[in-house]
Design a protein that fits this description.
heterodimer; A: mainly beta; seven-stranded mixed β-sheet; four-stranded antiparallel β-sheet; 11 strands; B: mainly beta; six-stranded mixed β-sheet
């Protein structure tokens, strides 16, 4: 089992460019999450999908959109990247909701210039 | 008061000793608690979850939960240099949202 996979691993964007971060899990989990991690700020939830067909905002959703493509895949889109979105992005999944253990992907390191 | 508080460290512990990591939380209705380990440049890796008051042991790791005092701790016995990492505490609040602490950096001294 690969667990949670993310692509790409690294990305450099110019201000205003768009991109989509891809995430897939093979653990048959119902819930998936997107986090960003910044120095001194810890992990912050951007969006989550409690189950296939649903998405909800987390703590820091502004500037992002998500799509739960199917049970396995959950993508994060930056429509117009800003330097403030420079961060490390992690996707995670859990069996069913926040009360269950979450398993993280390897992360995407994004730099916006 | 911050929702989930951890001492940022670094916490230096001699090899072979017990490392004790602490976490306090503000939401009294929180029900689920998690410890993650994160090596520099890597993603968080689940160590343990705990849901009930008391101790839960898994190998060299013991999680302790005291809901009345609103703290959760992680003990690492027989600390090894490979345990050097940042340890994240995560708490599932009563409104079913998860909050991560900023982590404690642990350094095991050979």
């Amino acid at each position: 089992n690969a667990g949670v996979t993310q692509t790409p691993k690294f990305q450099v964007l110019k201000t205003g460019q768009s991109m989509t971060l891809q995430c897939a899990q093979d653990m048959n989990h119902n819930s998936m999450y997107w986090y960003r991690q910044d120095p001194g700020m810890g992990l912050r939830l951007i969006y989550y999908s409690a189950s296939e067909g649903t998405t909800d905002k987390g703590e820091v959703p502004n500037g992002y959109n998500v799509s739960r493509l199917n049970k396995r895949e959950f993508s994060l889109r930056l429509e117009s990247a800003a330097p403030s979105q420079t961060s490390v992005y992690f996707c995670a999944s859990s069996e069913s909701g926040f009360s269950y253990e979450q398993y993280f992907g390897p992360g995407t390191r994004l730099t916006v210039t | 008061q911050k929702e989930v508080e951890q001492n940022s460290g670094p916490l230096s512990v001699p090899e072979g000793a017990i490392a004790s990591l602490n976490c306090t939380y503000s939401d009294r209705g929180s029900q689920s608690f998690f410890w993650y380990r994160q090596y520099s440049g890597k993603s968080p890796e689940l160590i343990m979850s705990i849901y009930s008051n008391g101790d839960k042991e898994d190998g060299r790791f013991t999680a302790q939960l005291n809901k009345a005092s609103q703290y959760v701790s992680l003990l690492i016995r027989d600390s090894q240099p490979s345990d050097s990492a940042t340890y994240l505490c995560a708490v599932n609040r009563e409104d079913d949202k998860i909050i991560f602490g900023k982590g404690t950096r642990l350094h095991i001294l050979p």
